[in-house]
Amino acid sequence: MVSPITLDALKVLDAIERKKSFAAAADELFKVPSAISYTVNKLEDDLGVAIFDRSKRKAELTAIGQTLVEQGREILKATDELTHMAKQSANGWELELRICIDSILLFEPIYRLIAEFQQLHPWINIKVTEEVFGGTWDALNADNCDLVIGATGEPYSKGFSIVGLGQTDFVFTVSKNHPLTQAPQPLSNESIKAFPSVVVADSSRNLPARSVGLLDGQSRLTVPSVEKKIEAHLLGLGVGSLPLHRIKTLLASGELVVLTLAESESRLTNVSMAWRKGNEGKALAWFVDKVQEMKGELL
Fold first, then answer.
1. Lowest mean pLDDT among 35-39, 72-76, 208-212, 262-266
2. Per-residue model confidence as pLDDT tens digits over 263-298
């Protein structure tokens, strides 16, 4: 069954309500007044309801008429958005961009980029997810995201375009009141093993999970993100290494303390951005360029 409520009829009702007269609505829509009246009369006949109360000197919307105007505007807005999205897609702009951010990074700089992008392309949907360790590569490999920001380690596929964002240093850190702050440094493995290691769970679903910094025989406290790992360290729940760029303020305030290890090794970690080769979407290209411009703010 074809609905008698057409987009043209909804535009007519919208114009009449805003302009407060049939004649003014006709001028705005470049129609003659009789065409406006015909559209309204036909809609009333087809629906079997009175959209305007004509008992007064000036026709006024009835309750059902007001409802038609209000809900009709939502339909018109949705139609405009759909039209715009279709045109965007035809011009190479994605309808949605899926961004996966590794837990090692702060989200705030990326959110600022998203805010800038939304001002330029409000019709494009952005989906942001958080992954840990191999979970970023896993999401890209499974086509669950379009762009990975903050990936660490090596990818499991050669089908990605990869751009380096820099390096972050992992430092062994405990809370200011932790017993290890009173132990002789550099710390031996035996002294470290006496306390739980706070471990961030690798979020890989299909690829092999990774874990670093855990000694043989050491108990663990597993948490879902780097942010939660920092919280656990602050509460003295365990020990382990944290990315230096995430804790500089906490080190400066003395809330966290860096300790030296007897069996120390370089913990510099490469951080990358990646996307699938062959993806030529314009939204993806915009973010790739912008992230490279502000990579100094990420690490």
1. 208-212
2. 776 688 999 999 999 888 999 999 999 999 999 899
Q: Which residues contact 171 (CB under 8 A, 6 or more apart)?
A: 241, 242, 244, 247, 258, 267
Q: Report residue 96: phi and psi, to 5°.
A: -145, 140
Annotation: CATH topology of 7-90: Arc Repressor Mutant, subunit A (1.10.10)
- The partner residues of 123 in beta bridges, in order of sequence, read none
- Domains of the chain, by residue range, sit at 7-90, 97-299
HSE-CB at 186 with a 13 A cutoff on CA atoms is 9
pLDDT (tens digit per residue) in 158-173: 899 999 999 999 999 9
Distances (CA, A) of 111 to 99, 201, 202, 228: 11, 24, 23, 20
Burial of residue 172 (number of CB atoms within 10 Å: 0-12, 13-18, 19+): buried
The string of pLDDT tens digits covering residues 65-98 is: 899 999 999 998 888 877 777 766 667 789 899 9
What residues pair up with 241 in beta bridges, in sequence order?
172
Residue position matching structure tokens 């059902």: 64
Helix (DSSP H) and strand (DSSP E) numbers for the chain:
10, 11
pTM recorded for the entire structure: 0.73
Does the domain made of 97-299 have the CATH classification 3.40.190.290?
A: yes
